[in-house]
């Protein structure tokens, strides 16, 4: 949707996969991401609350021990405006 909006306005759009890999060196960030991710899931589906609490507890323990590794699939987007003025 964002790509199309830029392209419709004449921008050149580039996408590049850029997975974020979190491991023991990023414990604080991993914990923060995990709490937000599980919280968002429960917000969308409150019936998951009990299972999510156990899941979060187990994953936080793995994070604290340094055994949790997370890959967040992410795509970078670059939108370049059409040149204006000057020689084409």
Question: How does this structure look, described?
Answer:
The protein is of the alpha+beta class and 88 residues long. The chain contains 3 helices and 4 strands; from the N terminus they run H-E-E-H-H-E-E. The strands form 2 sheets. The chain has a two-stranded antiparallel sheet. Strands 2-3 form a two-stranded antiparallel sheet. It is elongated, with a radius of gyration of 20 Å. The chain starts with a helix and ends in an 8-residue tail after the last strand. The relative contact order is 0.27.
What's the topology here?
Layout: H1 2-8, E1 12-17, E2 20-22, H2 27-44, H3 49-65, E3 70-72, E4 75-80
Antiparallel strand pairs: 1-4, 2-3
Helix pairs in contact: 2-3
Protein name: SAM-dependent methyltransferase
Which residue ranges are poorly predicted, with pLDDT under 50 across at least 5 consecutive positions? none
Overall pLDDT metric: 93
For the largest beta-sheet, the strand count, sense and barrel status come to: 2 strands, antiparallel
Proportion of helical residues: 40-55%
Key phrases:
single chain, 88 residues, alpha+beta, two-stranded antiparallel sheet, 3 helices, 48% helix
């Amino acid at each position: 949707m964002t790509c199309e909006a830029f392209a419709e306005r004449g921008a050149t759009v580039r996408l590049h996969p850029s997975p974020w890999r979190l491991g023991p060196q990023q414990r604080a960030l991993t914990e923060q991401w995990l709490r937000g991710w599980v919280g968002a899931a429960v917000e969308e589906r409150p019936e998951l609350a009990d299972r999510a609490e156990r899941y979060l507890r187990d994953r936080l323990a793995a994070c604290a021990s340094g055994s949790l590794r997370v890959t967040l699939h992410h795509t970078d987007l670059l939108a370049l405006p059409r040149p204006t003025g000057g020689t084409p």
